[in-house]
Design a protein that fits this description.
Order of helices and strands: H
Shape: rod-shaped
Radius of gyration: 15 Å
Number of helices: 1
Largest sheet: none
Strand content: under 5%
Number of strands: 0
Structural class: mainly alpha
């Protein structure tokens, strides 16, 4: 159904955002470690 597709899209977007956030924070940690 359409509802299932929408919920999957929202979940995927949430995972994508959290993954991007984790990448940014790990990059920031790496920069802090190098400094």
């Amino acid at each position: 159904s359409t509802t299932a597709i929408i919920s999957v899209a929202i979940t995927g977007r949430r995972i994508h955002i959290s993954g991007k956030f984790m990448a940014m924070s790990s990059a920031a940690a790496g920069n802090a470690h190098d400094a």
